[in-house]
Structure formats: C-alpha cells, structure tokens
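Q: Is it fine to ask for two folds in a single conversation?
A: Yes, each is treated on its own. Send the first.
Q: Here.
A: Result:
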Amino acid sequence: MKDSLITVEQLTVGYKAAEGTALILRDVSFQVAAGTRLAVVGAVGSGKTTLLKVMGGLLRPLAGRVIYDGRDAFAAEHRRWLRERVGISWQQPEQQLFAETVLTDVMFAPLNLGYSPEAAKEAAEEALRSVGLPEELWAVSPFHLSGGERRLAAMAGTLATRPQILLLDEPTAGLDPAAGRRLLTLLGKKVAAEGLTCLLATHDRKIASLWCDEIVVLHSGRLVFHGRSAGWSGFVASIGPSQGEELTEAGPNDNSGERREDPAGPAGDPAIKIAAAGLLAAATAISGNWLDLLIKMVVATAIYALHKIPLRSVGKLLRPFWPLVVAAIIFGRGGESGTTLSGTALFSTVLFSAGGWTYTTGDLVAGLWVGTKFMAVILAVGWLGLTTTPTRLTRALSWWLSLGGLCRRLGANLAMAVFVAMRFYPVFVSEAERIRLAQESRGISLVRGLAGIGRRITSLVIPLSAALIRRTETLATALVLRGYRPGQAGFTTAVPQIGRFELLLMMICGLAVLLPLLV
C-alpha cells in the first residue's frame, strides 16, 4: 500500500490465565494510507476496542508493533507526539467530562500537552466551533448539557489537540439514530476538510459501508477481511449470509476478552467458606508477632493453592490496596516499634527528617508491620470473592445474617445491602478503569509533579462519582419496578452442606489459630 501512514504488524494481545495465555487478538496485520476512513468491524468481544487501545499506545501487546509514519507507538520519545497527533474517543466519551465549564474541559488535553493557557483556549474554541456546539454553552457546566450536547463537547475535547489521526470506538453508541447521523455527518466533514485519517470501530455494517472507504473485519481476535467497502458485500456472499451476520452480530462470541474461569472454584459450600474466611481474617488481625503473621499468610497461601487461583488474579486483587500499604509504611508509627524496638540503638537510627518530623528504622519496621498485616488480612478474605459467585455468596450470607434462618427479615435486608455492595465493586473498578483510560488518552500522564497528581485525582474522582450516582439511580429504579420492598425475602437462604472439602478448609483455618499457640 503506497503512502502507508499506519502499519500494524503481527499484533498479538492477551493475558495470563490459569490454563495459560488467553489471546484477545491473534497475529493481526494491516496498513492504512493517509486520509483513509477505515471501519474496524466485528461482533461485541471480537477485539475491536482492544485493537484501538493498542493503537493508542495504552495497552502493550504480547507481540507485534504499531508504527505511525515511522514512529513506534510504544517508544517513550514518541509519547507526546502520539497524544497530540492521535485523538481517541471511547464509547460514550461524555462520561469523562469533569471540569467546571465546557470550555475548560475541552482545554484539558492541550494543557496536558504543554500549551499555554492562551493557546489552549484558542485550540478549545476552534474545536468547539468545529463540532457546532453553540457558543452560549461554552461557559455552562457539562453536567447541565443534554446527552447529545455532551457528546459534542467530548468530541471537541478529542479534536482540541488538532490530531492527524482519529481512533473512534462506537462513536454513535447511546445516541438516537438522528443524533448518530448528525454526529457522523459532522465528523465526515471534519475528516474530509482536513484530510484526517480515521479508524472507526463498529458492529454496524451500514455505517461501515456508507461512511468508510475500507473495512477490517475481526472475528475471534483474527483479521478475516481487509478491503474496500465495495468489496464487503462480495466477501459476505462468498462465505454465506448467515456467517456474514455472525461476524457483526451485536452479541458475545467465543473471544470476549473476559475471563472464562469458573468463579465457584473446585468445590466448597459458600456458608462454610464465609466462616473460614472470617476465622482466618480475625486470627490474622490479632497476630502479635512476625512468626504468628507468617503462619497466617502461609495458611492463606495454602487456601489459594487449594482453589487453584492464578497469581494474576491475586495480583489484581491486591493492586488497589498498595497505596494504603505505602501510606502505612510511612505513617504506621506504632505497634512493635513503639514498644520493643524504638528503645534500642539499632531501631533508633534516623533515616530522614522533615521539619520537626523524624523517621527512624524503628518507624520503618513498625510501618512494615502495619502494612504487611493489612495486606495479610486482605489475602485472608480475598479468596472468598475469587472463588464464589455473588449470588451464592449472598444466599450463604443471608443464612448467617438471619441467625441460621431464625430472623429472616433482618437477614434479607442485610443480605440485600451486601449483595448491592458486592455488585458495585466490579462496577466501580470497571468505571474507574474506563475513565482512567479516557483521561490517559487526553495526555494526563504527561503532566508531572504535584500538578499532575492534582489533575489525575480531579479528572478521575468527579466523573467516577457521577457515573456511580447514575448507576445507583438505575439500580434503585430497577428494584422498584421489580417490586422490591424492604424486608422481603429477596434471596433464598442456603443451608450449609458440610463435606470433605469443607472439613479440610476448616481444618486449615483452624491451624492458623492453633499453630501460633503451640510454637
């Protein structure tokens, strides 16, 4: 292909799972010429979004590379160029908005890239004009705009750095047909007027055929077609209409990129698991010395091994808590160092001081003690969520909270509260990752120091809070529409069934309590 602006070479993307490496994209290669409008077509889960993440330099592949006009997408020296010249818009981008006004939100990416406030304002105003958002709305909070207006504001944020290349993930998702057509018409005029190169991920064959020059089709992570839009109908005819429908059907397939492990583990009654996890966590929390704590951690490790939980899952479980561990190491100045350690010369050495605050080796040991114990408690209960589905866990918890079925009303209310909390945790993690990805696309990682930390926190917390409020309202409405009333038995309780596995589990946790007493 002449004048290739983008080259994707043998791209393979995946993650580690218990059974080995699960691949999301498999040996994908294609080229895109400057000024081309390319549709990336495939069913939900075929790898479209993953491909855009890699092309945006946000997800490293296991193999292969992405080259933009001779620049490696993952080379550190090209990161600023990538953020400035490759504009990315994810699904429902309006949910990333956070600033006080529309104009200041659109200025976010230019400021991250080092524009002066005047230059950033000029670029933002130009972008807002290009998407047709009325000037009287620029000083309005983005949260006061309609859904369509917020989509335009978010698109302006993508265009504010004057990108040469656009990566658009389902740009019409969530819009009514008329609004979707208006957005595509607007983008089409922008792309044509400035000669932009555009990759648009979609499962809509009509959009792909009418709006784009070329089409790439992904199926189960593999590239099965790349050609001119006019050749798409011929390709479908060659493989049969039913298979052609399969390639773009808006539903899951055998390669969603999500984990397929059985969350219930090899065996185990959930009520007994709750008791075992509670016993182990309590024993860990009251550990009095390092040997005692080590025994509890060894027991927890044995439970993870018993359930064959992969290390990747353990790492993912612990990742959100590392900032708290670091804070504990710095500020956890009690425990052992405050009693048996701080009086000795070995543990009174000053490591550093700031103003009137000193940090000694004793403080370091105390901090390590607090941080390690905190992480050990997380490990002691974390396996429960990794090996039991929320529904089974809630039924078992309902049995415990109802005091073995004696207080069903109390158990039902508490179980519903716990069930909602458990359901919201993955939603919280998913929303946080989605918003982090969107702000990363707008160059937030390029801002260093305290200013960068402040911008990261603000750009994440505000849209995340708004997203959780929306989800809470949706859930509350759904519960009311389904006839839920406080106190009613929303879950059937699960009476514990004790077998050999349950006895083994309780024996292992019992060892965690008894061994420190015998040593």
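Q: Second one now.
A: Result:
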Amino acid sequence: MYQFHTGQPYRDLFWKIKKTKETRVVLDVKRENLFTALKHVEDVLYEISCDATEALVLTIRTKLSPLVLPKTKTQAQQVGMLTESHSYLITSLDLHTVDLEEFKYGQTKITGYRLVDVDSPELQGFLKDWEIMSSRMDRKAPVPQTIRTETALMYDAVKLFAMGLHQLDLTKAVDFPVISCDMSVSSSDGSSLINLMKPGLTGEISFDPQGFRSSFSLDIMTLKSEGLQKVGHWTPRDNVTVEDNVTSDYDSLLIKDKTLIVTTVLTDPYMMLKESAEDLQGNNRFEGYCVDLLKELSQQLNFKYEIRLVKDRAYGLQNESGDWNGMIGEVVTGKADLAIADLTITSKREVAVDFTMPFMNTGISILFKKPTQKVTTLFSFLSPFSMEVWAYVVGAYIGVSVVLFLVGRLSPYEWDNPHPCRQNDQVLENSFSLLNSLWFTIGSLMQQGSDLAPKAQSRDSLGTV
C-alpha cells in the first residue's frame, strides 16, 4: 500500500513498485491531493498497464470519490484498460448512486460495496414519508438509488436516538444529571437507550462492549448488463459470503462467444499432427486427447479456440531475470489465453499462472486387490485350512486314538490291578479306554498333556508320534 503525497514524483513511486514486482497496488489519496492524483491519472494508468500489474485500487478519502469514475473511464479507455482482463474495486459505499450506464455493456469487472439496502422496507417507508413532505414543500423527492450512505447514517443517528429516548421515557422517568466533560462518568440510562434502538436505513443498530457497531452487513455489488446486482455480503462475524454459482456464471460469461488462443506442444498421445493426404488447416491439423478435451470444453462453455504450437517448443522455465519461456511465457505475456498439454504443475509455475485440476497423475504406484470383507460365522476358525485338510486332521486324530486303544488292549503292561493291596485279586483294568484314548490324543495334539501316561513302550512311541 502506497500513499500519494502532494508534490511526490509519481514516476519514482511506480518505478519503486515495478522493482518490487508487486502485482496488486493500493494508492491511498488524501482529500487535498485528489486533484493532483486526477491530473496524473492517465500517466498512472499507463505505468500500470506497461508494468503488467494485475490490479489497482485507488482509495480516495473524500465523499466525492464516486465522481472519479467518469474521469477514470476516459483515461482507462485510452490505454486499453477497460477489457475483460481488468478488474476495478470501488471502495466507496456510494457506488449505487453513480450513473454506470456507460460501463454496463462492457466486460470490465467493477465491484463495490453498499451499506444502504435500497429494497429494504425501512428505506421504502422513509422515501414515502419524504415524498409526502416534498409534495407539501413543492420539492422533488429522491429515489432509492440517490440516497448516500452519509445521509442514511445521519438519518439513523437522529431518528433512532429520538425513538429510543421516547421509548425509554415511556417505561421510566429519564433523568439527565449534569455530567462534566472532565470526568469519565457516563449516563446510567445509556445502555437502556441502546437496547431500545431498532433497525434503520443502514441495517440493524447494535454495539459491542467497546462501543463499535457490530451487527451490520455490507452488500457486495457487481456491475452487469442489467445494472448493479448483489452477489454476496460481508459481515464482521462471517466475513465474505458469496452466493452460489455467481463466480462460475460470471467466468462463463467472460469467455462466451470468444476466440481463445491455445498454446501447446506436440506430445503423443495428447497433441499430434494428423496424417492425411489433404492439406489440413487450422485446428483440423491436430488430434489427440487435448484436442478432444478442448472440443468438449468449447461446447459446454460456448467459446471458440485457435490452437497454436509454441515457437520454442518448451513447456516453460524461468530464467535469472524472472522471465518465462515456452507455454508458460506465452500465457504470462498475453500471447496466449491458455495452455493445454502434459504440463507438470510446480510451485514456481503456480505463482506465475493458474492451473486447473490435473487430468493426469504421474509417479510410481503399487496396485493390490482390495480384500473382500467376509461375514463372520461360528465356524470362522476353520478358514485357515480347507475342508479336505480338516478332514485329514480329524481322520488322523480318530485313527491314532483307535490305534492307542488297540495297543493298550494288546499290551500286558497296560493292565493294572485297581486294588494293589489285594495281591491275589485277578481283576485287572486298562486305563486307556476308547474315551481316554481320544482325550490323550487331543492333549498331545494341543501340547497340554493329561493325567494318563502310557506304560508300554509301543504305546509310548505311538503317543510321541
């Protein structure tokens, strides 16, 4: 941000801006320097145009700032700065009071702010009362588009204070003690008076604890062929809120029925020359993915295009002086409106130009099949092996158990006297019954052991296996 002082050599100022490579400039002009700034506005705009600066905000701290527009329009036309590539932000809140008929049918983006809602019921009632009063005094009543912000603020201040004081007087006896200007003592009825204030011409009247106005809204206005249209609003709490589809609709209007210069390079299969015996001309010479993409975009956005091969056959590199070559250079210098190719997005290139979402991603990738989620059941523990394997395991388990049972029956070492104290007792028992054999086998399989221990060497060997 730079301040424009009286007597300051403006060429030195813009040379300083050029050396810093600023792309957005704000000039702050005081009221006493207004005519000095207007005197040199042509040279100022010329310097801006030559330096390829993207945006200029001329802030003039005076209520006459809307009057700058007609003068600026004439000078901007002479240097070719009223095109679709230029944007103007009017910081005055009285843009709605300016006759913008000469700007409506151009494609220059003019944006401003508005505090007074010309369609609000409060303003309509105010104008109706003013019309009645003007008819009695034989004067012409104003229209909503001529109500300045300063006038509305003054009206709100006087009327709302009077209404609040009247409402407060109806509820309690209002006492106005003598207050010295040298003391920081405030009136005890001040907060009550503020709470009784109602919405005015400039919106809801409310204040924060510091005494600043808190609940108000600034309408964001954009000039279109129908006139100034509201495209969003700004509030201290929510900041900027833009209505849906405003940006996309406006951008599509900028390129509608336009012929865009498209720069590209020959790279298979994105941009290729057609092999034909005929002498092809213009866009018919090319084929490939990028050509198909351009054709589809032109049909959806209603624009025409002309494909041109970049002269140096380069994608775009920045030299030591900051200049670009290749396709990036042609877009930066304005020789081409856009570039389409297998162009890599880098951080340096993103500073110079704007990229769309990439239609191709490169790099090393590993592909694998996404595992299928199976439903968990009671027999999910059988999943590690097939049914054949489980059948073999069960068969081996039963077979080993049966063999243990038979070996125990055949071996004399497995028969014991259940009552050792009675030596003459002829009744012998075998601890390896069929059920115990199954239990011994499952214990060995699970490596948990059991209370049973084979005595015969043959059975011990079989249990070990």
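Q: Anything structural to flag on that second result?
A: Two points. Confidence is low (pLDDT under 50) at residues 49-54. The chain has four domains: 2-115+217-248, 121-195, 258-352, 380-464.
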